[in-house]
């Protein structure tokens, strides 16, 4: 089982959008919050050029990305909360013999902090951050890296995510995906998922191992 984190385990999508909005404004770049929010789920390598035309490899891009990370950690991280049922769901899944991994577009330091917020770091066998891959979602690199770490294949893996970028990445990796509405996306946006639930607590309420395939 490979989980996304932001918007899936932790209610953090608005906070990420706010941090981007704050920092772009600091740099004199005015962008609508809603436009930023629609891109949360991509990594900075995709989001920044899509919003501004600025490459993350440029001097300005590196400064913006570094400042955005600092702003998120200093202003927003401490107020984040996990979605209801997160730990109970992961305990249940692990108890059925599934190995648990993470494929996130966050940087490693942010990802570790977010897993602490979710209260599940001890349950995660392998975590893949944007530091481990060449391209973030919707490219499938994070899923390929997570499967390699878990010694899994597309036939034995399932992803749980909350954005169209998770759904696309999973499709490109040929991995089935369970989608959650908790990230703020509609069912139409999440089309292609094997099933769609409100949040982790809703998944737990309808839990059956067959939903995720046979445990390896």
Q: What does the average pLDDT come to?
A: 94
Shape: globular
**Largest sheet data:** 6 strands, parallel
Provide the low-confidence segments as ranges. none
SSE arrangement, N to C: EHHHHHEHEHEHEEH
What would CATH call the architecture of the largest domain?
A: 3-Layer(aba) Sandwich
The name of the CATH superfamily of the largest domain reads HAD superfamily/HAD-like
Number of helices: 9
Beta-strand segment tally: 6
Helix content: 40-55%
Strand content: 5-15%
CATH topology tier name of the largest domain: Rossmann fold
The oligomerization state is single chain
**Count of spatially separate domains:** 2
Q: In the CATH hierarchy, what is the class of the largest domain?
A: Alpha Beta
Structural class from helices and strands?
Answer: alpha/beta
Cα separation of the termini: 10 Å
Note down, in words, how this protein is organized.
The structure is a single chain. Strands 3-2-1-4-5-6 form a six-stranded parallel sheet. The termini are close together. Helix 1 (13-26) crosses helix 4 (59-76). The protein is built from nine helices and six strands, in the order E-H-H-H-H-H-E-H-E-H-E-H-E-E-H. The model has no long low-confidence stretch (mean pLDDT 94). The chain is α/β, with parallel strands linked by helices and 216 residues long. It has two domains: 2-11 and 81-212, HAD superfamily/HAD-like (Rossmann fold, 3-Layer(aba) Sandwich), CATH 3.40.50; 13-79, DNA polymerase, domain 1 (Orthogonal Bundle).
